[in-house]
Amino acid sequence: MTAFPDLIEKIRAAAPGLRGRLLANQSLSDLTWFRVGGPAQVLFSPADEEDLASFLAALDPSVPVTVIGLGSNLIVRDGGIPGVTIRLGGKAFGSVEIDGETIRSGTAVPDMRLAKAAAEASLDGLAFFRGIPGSVGGALRMNAGAHGGETTDVLIEARGIDRKGELRSFTHAEMGFRYRHSSAPDDVIFTGASFQGRPGDREEIEAEMERVTAAREAAQPIRERTGGSTFKNPEGGKAWQLIDAAGCRGLVRGGAQVSEMHCNFLINRGGATAADIEGLGEEVRRRVRDHSGFELHWEIKRIGRETTPA
User: Fold this and answer.
1) Do residue 70 and residue 100 come from a single domain?
2) Helix (H, G, I), strand (E, B) or coil at 175
3) Does 274 reside within a domain?
4) Looking at the predicted structure, is the pLDDT value of residue 216 above 90?
5) How many domains does the chain divide into?
């Protein structure tokens, strides 16, 4: 695989005070649940919010910026990601604090951990996050939901850093939530959020979380290399039912397969490429469209180049 040109020396010259980690041509396959994909031209892990702001303010505006979280609902294409890929982590973005009925969280916090922290504080309303295999940052960006709950139901405020390195905050109304979508500016990298809980019984909340876990394990191929729910439910239909009716359950392309267990999940059977997985998804979309007339839209995010960079 041909490497991207190394940008790190240029970046360090523009922002000599950076405290975060910069890596050139870093493979991203191990950072995605599908375990596929090419490298990041530059992978940056900022030390904290201030470090991220300084980095973005100094970065050449012509350099593209991509943000990834836990990689649970993500396909990184085989050609990799040009420019800078940012992945938040560490204590600065991974903490959860409870203040009365308010939960404050960094955006690198896994949704499951957010649910657990709320339960331990006897705060109800966030148990649905137990069924979402992503991070808080992704939940904000796509109004993630599961088992009857959505991020919009509990969010108070979100904050982040824009492409100019400026701190931004967004009220619930300003997030513009819709089904699996928020209207926050695309250039904002979310760094934290606050959520509203309500008093509840810890044992009852934990029992609900256990039910969510059991339902997920019984119905979804969570032990496979998968990206979670592949397509959004179209208005007037359920994606998995449409896929099943179109004869796509178990469909194979290269090393990728439509799950036999839940056919709105694609899995890497071993040795799949990103092109295998994305191509299989497009074949499913075509067959559903031809069979029922429904147009399925990707819920999984697909980023990067389709071919190896020259």
Assistant:
1) no
2) helix
3) yes
4) no
5) 3
